[in-house]
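Help wanted!
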Amino acid sequence: MSDTAIRDRVASTIVDVLKVDADLVGTDTRIREDLGSDSLDSVTLVMALEDEFGGSINDNDAKSLTTVGDVVSYISRRVEEKSLA
Amino acid sequence: MSRRRVVVTGIGMISPLGTAAGECWSALLEGRPSVAATPASWRQYAETTSTIWAPLPPIDWPAHGISRIDQMQLDTSGMLTLAASTEAIRDAGIATSLADPKKKTFRLEGLSPERCGVFMGTGVGGITSFYGNAVNHVMTPLKAVLADPTALPPMPLRFNPFGVPAMMPNAVSALPGIRWSLGGPNLTFSQACAAGTVAVGHAFRAIAAGDVDVALCGGAEYLGDPYGGIFRGFDIARTLVTEGSDPQRANRPFDRDRTGFLFAEGGAAVLVCEEAEAARRRGARAYAEIAGYAENFDGYSIMSIEPSGTRIVDMLGAAVRDAGCAPTDIDYVNTHGTGTAVNDEIESAVIDRLFGQKPFVNATKSLTGHCIGASGGIEAAVTALSLAHQTTHACHNLEHPIRDLRFVREAGPCRIDTAITQSFAFGGHNAALVMKRIV
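Answered by r_m:
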């Protein structure tokens, strides 16, 4: 899977969960501060990413993801390790 | 005043016969049942006597307004409820408008929200979601067990034939009804952390209305499963206390350094409530009078209190009025007081706004931990005892109060004529009882 494909799928998952305008979702966008994600949204987003990419994302990993770019890099790495679909 | 007439104006239905009321009705008229063999996968676990069931038809959830996110978050019982309600509202010809695009909530046009109620029953609610988590939870160590069978997690020796009546929520009402041969109304309320308060409130109303003369009422809960799966459900939702340097001091409702609620294994409280004159005639001692009750609903979030606290203020005001009192009459507030950041912040602001600094304030959960559905019954009992003994317990572990309220710092005598005990539940259910001293 290309990095662009991963970025697009992460962005559309974020839009789906947080109901934000796709234009607001850039690499440096902070999910909590810039997109208004609260703690329930964060849990939902992790579930939606697990659903989108197959596999599980543990709590500690999830807590370390601040920006959209962090999520994309994390998913890319997991896909490369073949620990996500 | 003559009784108002009641009519049905809309119907929504999903059943094994169809995914809309019309489909179900046609199948009924045409004598077309849904019957199929039980899933082959089930047979891996047990040979059952019955091997057929009535499955639901495939359901196109998005067509029923249930999104991909909804499907991840909700139990199927909740999705079925939402889908049927959507059809019923449409069928009734009630126009809707989008209220909150992010939460995907709507308004019913031309109707006042405060005049619209919801009355639903369920046998076991979201049990399959719990089952799913329980299986995931129990199976996880089994991966290691494949290498070392002696490390098997504990398993009950048998599949309990009384599992269904043991599991059904209404057993907590049916059991005392059977044990004490009570033939009057026997209802179960299931409003999570407010369930006990709601149950006592409805017992009070039934006695006040003359429906019954005596009621056993309260709440009961047990959450100590051998695998810690129920605990984990609350933990993963980030609601529980973190132990810090001193576990004994960790549970601290209304303190600056609170971190969540202390999960209790369980508990129960049952109050006998009676019509006062009959109680006097039989020479009964009375701890307190239940003088008022109110309940309402946030209509906001399945897990969070509505942040402005306006619905809670409305509800508390109504409870006080129902008791024929003013907010200034309240001498003691037995709080919901869980120790979560959000609950205590909103609750303390609400108390300040409505009752000010006059009443004594404490949190029974600072000592009992959170007994969920039992807590309202326990706290109603504590409030009655506080009135009877004119003393109450401290808000345990409170060192740095988050608001300047009259928190009880040490147990001791206190003049209490009128008290309120309040509960707020996951789901958005708010309820409070007003009790008075017997004079």
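OP: Thanks! One thing I noticed: Chain A touches chain B through twelve residues (CB under 8 Å).
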